Amino acid sequence: MTTTDEAMEALTVGAAEIGLILNPPVRHAIASTTVFHDRMVAAVGPSHPLAKRKVVSLRDLAEFPFVLTEPSFGLRQQLDRVFARHMFEPEIFCVTDSIALVKGIASVGRQCTLLPRFAFQPEADAGNLCTIAVKEFSEEALVFCVCTRSDRTLSPAAEVFVAVVVDYCRRFRR
Fold it and tell me: Which DSSP string corresponds to the chain?
């Protein structure tokens, strides 16, 4: 995994043919194809005080420490924009570049996190995390895209890879 900023840079300088990017920033030289949409949700451990709630607001989450990704992640940039718009300053327990660590720490104690719903599916199915809709994110679509250089043709292998990824993601999201 790499950050949104790193993926965009790798595409721009030609170090990568393909980037799988959340809400890619607009760049003249980069073409993006939407693969699927998702929503940001809160995730807490099964014994967390909010675990049984279906919907919460950021204010409901304010008393709990957050586990967040690094600011260079597209996910974090989306969170920070919503936090700023709602004048919300979370108490931050931990910042990491590991989604697995974010989920692991949020599954115990009073910590919480915010990630796309799909990111928690295996843990939610196993009963290790509970996901909760967050009012402030109900209108904030997360758009997952396949990005490429607009001035280059993909190699045959990259074309096949993109087709498989797009097909899988679209079937997964149904």
Answer: ---HHHHHHHHHHTS-S-EEEESPPP-TTEEEEEEEEEEEEEEE-TTSTTTT-SEE-HHHHTTS-EEEE-TTSHHHHHHHHHHHHTT--PPEEEEES-HHHHHHHHTSTT-BEEEEGGGGHHHHHHTS-EEEEEGGGTT-EEEEEEEEETTSPPPHHHHHHHHHHHHHHHHHH-
